Amino acid sequence: MLKKVIDSLGSRRFSMWLLKAAAVYMLYLTVIWVVELLPTKPMIWGPLALWGIFFLANVLISLIRDKYRYNGNFIMHGAFFVLAVGFIIGALFRIEAQSVVVNNTTFYADRDQLQLTGPEKLQSSLKNNLDLYVDRIDVEFLMGKQYFTTLRADISYPASTRANKASLYLNDGVNISGTRLKLSGFGIMPKILIKRLGKYAHRGTVELSLFPPGVRESINVGAYELTLALYTDPAIRGGVLTNKSLNITNPMLELEAKWLGNEAFRGVLNIGETVKFGGVELRFDGIERYVVINLIKDPGENIVFLGYILLSLGLLMRLISGRGMGRHSKTSEREEG
Length: 337
Description:
alpha+beta; mini-chromosome maintenance (MCM) complex, domain 2; 17 strands; 36% helix; disordered C terminus
């Protein structure tokens, strides 16, 4: 009975079942990652521990009996184990954050508002020693539609010296102090000057996401509610202001001002134009681009990368030596029989 159990644990058929089980476990981890489920530790470590026990038993028995003829199998099994460890470490310790950063401004991870996800105890590590300056934002659209052909932010870091230069792209970027940075979005904001009763109420960029053009957002200035919309490539169609494309050619600001619910002003401003209503003076000074920067700190990434290298190496060894070793195995089995 014991001999049958040992033979089964060390057999090639059981090796294939382990490979299939590992693939199912990878799918299981992927689903958890995609739906952003917060798994308990037994949900992660339980299946891996069980698989690991059978994996080690299979490898040790096969090596002792010298029946593990495909070295590629050993490496592929090990690759699945490394991948599992990498995914688990990433699921448990990955920290991710998002932040909107305007062109020609400085970003400080420890000061700016970040939308953080990940273990609270580790979130401070994402903010340490990370600051940068956005030098330039370049964007191009396919035929003026909402499809990027180019989205790049040139940055300098650290912000204090700006000694290092790098570029961030959509879903690609640079690693700074163990944190990977990439772009995940783009938008535009209006630059306006607002005076109320002769005093400055606001001067500079208004942090409103007015992208794509035509989207309306509101701010309050005293008792006034100001509703703003930007048009980067404006046109009049059917008596209605609209946007021909996303290209930035002749930006215009559509403004609606209400005082205690009553309309005080409605109109369109070109860059440099000023409008007055009640005790408020508003001047449209232009637009500014911004990008959404993703910050990711994932200690499991390099482990996963190593796992894929081992998996490719094991598969390559199987492809190169598989045919000859297969003939040798059949011959040996006949001899043993």
